[in-house]
Amino acid sequence: MASDDIWILGIHMTKFGKHPELDTVDLAAEAAMAALDDGGVAMQDMGVLAAGNLMGGPVGIGQALQKQIGQTGIPVYNVANACATGATALRTAIMAVKAGECDMGLAVGVEKLSGAGLLAGGSRSGDDKTWKPRGRYGAVASVDGRVGTETMPGVFAQVGMEYGHKYGGTSFELFARISEKNHAHSTLNPLAAYQKRFTVDEIMGDMMIAYPNTRPMCSANCDGAAAAVVVSDAKRKTLDPDQQRRAVKVSASILTTDPWEAACQVLPDVNTLTRNAAKQAYDQAGVGPDDLDLVELHDCFATAELVHYDNLMLCEEGGAVDFFESGAPQRDGDRPVNVSGGLQSKGHPIAATGIANIWEVCHHLRGEAGDRQIDGATVGLAHVIGLGSACGVHILEKAA
Amino acid sequence: MTATIPLVDYLALDPAPHLVVHECVSCGARYFDRRNACASCSGTEFRDADVDTDGELKSFTIVSLAAPGIPVPFVAGVVDCNGTSVRANVINVEPDPEHVTLGMKVRLATYSMGTDDEGTEAIGFGFEPVA
Questions:
Q1: Do A154 and B63 touch (CB under 8 A)?
Q2: A155 to chain B: nearest residue by CA?
């Protein structure tokens, strides 16, 4: 008897980094075709395509991808949810399969960001010669830099500092050590954009972007794509034994937004919606944080990783510093976090990130992660957050 | 006398500079911009309310890399003004972690952003340490 479980049948991420010779559609095609191949299926088997690309690509990335690898007339959903775009695409395909509209679907996320620099914040050159109120706040001049900061390193620096104010125990060095961990992890990941190990002193001494985040503590802009094929349980049971064995069960697929909070009106609150997503995911999957063999969480900045230990309930509330100090999130610790190297070294091609983190978890659950394999991994969690905000949490389990 | 205009419409300059929010009449939620309905309770009636000018710095960053034209380094932060969170720069302070600390007491301060071609002076705001 088939259940309503959904499975990842095939999944792939491209090498993250610089791909000057490939455009957005080429990268999406590479990931999509490899994911189909990994699942032993073809474009003709797909009943739905969900695709995401935030910057610089064609308006309809899904249709452009179809023209590149196969136009079968299936429905396409082009999705956008900031840094949670990839997870949103995956969840869209999952919803279509779960709703019974089709038995297999493809989700793709792709971005070209090499050399993009700072990704937010208004230029100051646009100020007028006369002070005229404009926009929602009746501002007479650009507010970025005058009323706080709009840059992502600065916003997420405040997220980590706020945690430090609330619970204590944080320092510039602590955040740098979190970054040191992820860069060390990246040395085992051949698909990471950067595989360079740094000492804590090197990280602290590097170029300051927004205190306490120095350059290596920020996510790396790069090019990359990731894609996944999802399949219903009934369809999976008709496939050959090897396909069934390598399929990874999606035990939870959750997407949340901010519930109203007073403070999130001025500084994004990345905590409440992540905690809500985690709670729903653990409940849906019937597993708890202690069951996780590995976690890929959204370390867009070193300051963000700390708060998500707490938000994903990997520790007691307020205990994120102690959790890190215990060594638990190191790859040889009790709860390895970001063994891929995380966004700081693996890289963060925005719309690809929310599928690439699932690829990493699947890779370990299938026992195919090579030098960085977490031995015996059977359950993993992947988390992304896009400001605005949207949070995706997926819990994945090895086939029984 | 020079005409003045605030940097943002929620900065009131008279009688003394202070920030003004749109407060939901039914639940008290506060917004610096206009809302059609309260994001907390869906109420549709709002009234203006003054924000305390004294507060505590509950988070900050020192921005060293910003968009072109923005002078760096500067301190951006969130100030808790008796329960209302305010996004602002911390001004009149050395922009380094020795002089800016979590939990420090701050108060609203204004400064001139310069006078435009028509003789109007724009007034910006930030929070400065309470000596």
A1: yes
A2: B61
- The neighbouring-strand residues paired with A374 are none
**Taking the CA of residue A147 as centre, how many other CA atoms within 13 Å lie in the half-sphere pointing to its CB?**
22
| Domains of chain A listed by start with CATH number | 6-116+222-248 (3.40.47.10), 152-218+252-398 (3.40.47.10)
Minimal C-alpha gap between A252 and chain B (Å): 28
Q: What does the alpha-carbon distance between residue B113 and residue B124 come to, in Å, rounded to a whole number? A: 6
Residue-wise pLDDT tens digits, A139-157: 999 999 999 999 999 999 9
A22 touching B (Cβ < 8 Å): no
Mutation choice for A interface testing from B8, B21, B46 by most A CBs within 10 A: B8
Give the pLDDT of residue B131.
75
**What's the whole-number average pLDDT of chain A?**
95
Report the 10 Å Cβ neighbour count for B103.
Answer: 10
Residues B6, A307: Cα–Cα separation, whole Å: 36
Dihedral sign of CA atoms A200, A205, A207, A209 in order = positive
Query: What number is the ipTM of this complex?
Result: 0.95
Q: Which residues contact A307 (CB under 8 A, 6 or more apart)?
A: A159, A160, A163, A270, A271, A320
Return the percentage of chain A with pLDDT > 90, whole number.
Answer: 91
Nearest to A220 by CA among A299, A137, A165, A318: A299
Residues 6+ apart with CB under 8 A from A1: none
Which residues of A fall within a CB distance of 8 Å from B125? 147
Average pLDDT of A21-31? 98
Residues A209, B96: Cα–Cα separation, whole Å: 13
Any B CB within 8 A of A268 CB:
no
Interchain CB distance below 8 Å, B67 and A141: no
Are A62 and A49 in contact by the 8 Å Cβ rule? The answer is: yes
Taking the Cβ of residue A165 and every Cβ of chain B, the question of whether any pair is shorter than 8 Å is answered with yes
Task: Report the predicted TM-score, pTM, of the whole model to 2 decimal places.
Answer: 0.96
> Which sequence spans correspond to the domains of chain B?
3-129
Helix-then-strand count for chain A, H and E: 13, 11
Which residue type occupies B11? Answer: L
Q: Per residue in B63-99, pLDDT tens?
A: 999 988 899 999 999 999 999 999 999 999 999 999 9
Which of A69, A54, A142, A66 lies closest to A386 in space, CA to CA? Answer: A54
Residues 168-187 on A with a CB inside 8 Å of B are: 172
B77/A158 touch (CB, cutoff 8 Å), yes or no: yes
Per CB-CB distance under 8 Å, the chain B contacts of A124 are: 67-70
Cβ–Cβ contacts within 10 Å for residue A79, how many? 24
Is residue A59 less than 8 Å (CB to CB) from chain B?
no
**Which residues in chain A have Cβ-Cβ distances shorter than 8 Å to B70?**
121, 124, 142, 144-145
